[in-house]
Amino acid sequence: MDWNSPRVTSLIERALNEDHALADATTLQTVAATQMAQAEIVAKQECVLAGLGLVPRVFELFLSLGLKAGQAEQQPPVVVTSHPEIFDGVRLRPGQTVAVLRGPARSLLSCERVTLNLLQRLGGIATLTRQFVDAVKGLPVRILDTRKTAPGMRVLDKYAVTCGGGHNHRADLSDAILIKNNHIRLAGGIGAALGRAHQRRRAHQLIEIEVRTMEEIREALEGGAERLLLDNMNPAQVRAAVALIAGRVPVEVSGGVRLDTVRAYAETGAQFISVGALTHSAPAVDLSMTIIPVGPLVPFSA
Does 231 qualify as catalytic in the annotation? Predict the structure, then answer.
């Protein structure tokens, strides 16, 4: 992940502006500008880490926004350090230190919530994804995300999926051709939709189509579909569909897949299982940030 990319930079700046971090009334009125402090981000539960690179970037952009606004002279930077064994994708234990931060107390306080919001959301996605990946361990299937991401957060939400061992489906509407039920109805049928897709697609675009019955599967195969999305089928139906497809194209399963059913779907022979819940329903993980007046650098927790 390029934490300095324009998309990530814009996302962080929007978050800081949304929180009016530069106008933190409580901090500005209670903490001296010269006060230095040290903070420790700690995991409060077992979880998978995602977004560690966002931490220093939040503070860099906070200072940059302050300078642009002419609200303050250049402040000392916040220095962020982590143990070498702490990186995105690692499983964290309760009480384990994610990062130690040292710098102006005002900066640490004013950016605390934005920093934790990002880490907790991404950690939640990575943790849930890892649970799905673990549930299908040993089987030749990939767990995919969907476009059901929080508005404006897609680049980070999808990155968090990869931290949990999952894989990304198309990034956006331009990335691939995925013909769904509404497209089929408006195009005049499966054959018509696939015919137009083949005529007009860009060279790199995969053509995938959603199917719900055996007849639709046959029609899609005849029309040149390159991947079939089996929509809202139970495992027995998927197994029968995979037998009919007989390896002619890859098969993706989607719709209502849960942790307690994902292995049954994986055992059908499908190559992909897409799960919207990875990004739209993952509970945030519990992380905390404790800030103390500056002193000797606190060692990392074991």
Answer: yes
Task: Compute the CA torsion angle 125, 93, 112, 66 (nearest 10 deg).
Answer: -80
Task: Kindly name the residue from 13, 19, 113, 218 that is annotated as catalytic.
Answer: 113
Q: Are residues 17 and 138 in the same domain?
A: no
Q: Give residue-wise pLDDT tens across range 44-99.
A: 999 999 999 999 999 999 999 998 887 656 678 999 999 999 999 999 999 999 99
| Whether residues 236 and 288 fall in one domain | no
**Range name among 86-95, 96-105, 274-283, 287-296 with the lowest pLDDT average:** 287-296
Count of structural domains within the chain = 2
Q: Is 180 a catalytic residue?
A: yes
Q: Which of 13, 148, 196, 201 is catalytic?
A: 148
Known catalytic membership, residue 73: no
Asked if 152 and 257 sit in the same domain, the reply is yes
Active site residue 85: no
Kindly report the three-state secondary structure assignment for every residue of 149-213. Answer: CCCCCHHHHHHHHHHCCCECCCCCCCCCEEECHHHHHHHCCHHHHHHHHHHHCCCCCCEEEEECC
Q: What is the pLDDT of residues 108-144, one digit of tens each?
A: 999 999 999 999 999 999 999 999 999 999 999 999 9
Model pTM above 0.85: yes
